[in-house]
Each structure stands twice: as structure tokens, then as C-alpha cells.
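Q: Convert this sequence to C-alpha cells.
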Amino acid sequence: YKIAFIEGWSLREVRAALAKAPHLEQTLADIPLAAWPAQLGLKLPGTENDTEFSASAEGWFFPDTYAYNRGATDKQILLRAYDRMQRVLAENWAERQSDLKLSTPYDALILASIVEKETGRGSDRTTISQVFNLRLKKGMKLQTDPTVIYGVGEDFDGDITRKHLRTDTPYNTYTRFGLPPTPIALPGRESIHAALHPAESSYLYFVARGDGTSQFSETLSQHNAAVRRYQLGIGQ
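A:
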């Protein structure tokens, strides 16, 4: 049998996929997600700290298709995905660019998860990474909607509002500086590589064009013009 974890999935979506997998023994179905690291024996950043976000398993399972035999357990699948993510992250961290504002591989995993959620077309991935890396270097807020949506959680109804952007949560990158406390999704190999190998450019802003691509801008005035064109339909 096979089970697929998809790039951009949250931990809740991983759990739902495991629950539907045929002939897979369910040992974690009734275990809260916050307790998964302990149940799986994972060694994650923050395990020595008594904080709300200590040892979150979010983002730590590599998105791929995993084959298994009847009688395998959900824990076995997750541990394989975790080991794979550890290897991919370590490989890319070892070859990272030298001038990044990322202190640890976990920082890279967090940023890669944001790049994963923001990328509509693969060719934009390294430039989106460049925007966020440059914002981190300049001490600017990341101001990325997917982190806000993640902070809203299961109450999000598909429509991000000004109220969402103004309501402070640990994941609201419009109200807080720096990276969010944990990843927000499963990043794939390309997003991990992009987070650690951003494009060489000086963009600080981007907006979705509506066709899967992004319009990048170096200045706020350019960005505002792009928003009017691509988001508001003014000046087309």
C-alpha cells in the first residue's frame, strides 16, 4: 500500500491522511498533535525548554509517497518521513549560502515552510526566498498571509480579513518581527533548497498576479502599484 504526504500540508492534514490509509495500524489517532513528538521519541528543537511551542512536530515529516505493508503502523510511516526530512535539511544546511539571517537548520525549516505556502509557480521560489531573507536582514516584518492563516487555525474560513491581519498571534508576521515559532507546513526539497539558496536580487515585496506567478518590487511605491493592478484591477 502507499500513502502520500503533500508539500504544503499541515500536521492536521497528515493526521487525516494517516487515518484514511488502508490496512495501516492506527496508534496515534486519539493522541493530541502536541504529544506526537513524545510518542514518536523525536529529538526536536526546543525539547529542553518549557514553552508553548516546545518540540512541535509541525513541518518535520518529509512530503513524499511512502510504501508500506499490511500491519505497518502510523508511527513507522512518520518516523520514516521524519528521518528523510532530517537528511534533506542537513544536506541543504551544509551547502547553504554564507550570508543568510538564519541561525539554525530549524530556522531554515520554518522559512522553507513559508516559501512552500507562498509559491504558486516553482520558478518564483528562490526569488520569494530572497524577499524574506532580505526582510530578515533588514529587520523588517515578513508580512506573509500564510503565517496569519496558520495562527487563526481551524477557525479560518478561507477568507483572510483585515481583522485577521491586525489580531496578534505568535504567527502573525504583520504584528511581530522575525520568523514564526514553528513551521506552518511540510516544505518540499525545492523549498528547503530555496530557503538556503535565495536568488540574487534586491526585492522587498511581491504580490500574486492571479495566474500562479508573483510580481516582485524593490520599492513600496512599485509594490502599491502592483497591488492596484493585480489585486484591485486598477490600471490594467
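The beta strands are 2-4, 65-67, 205-208, 214-217.
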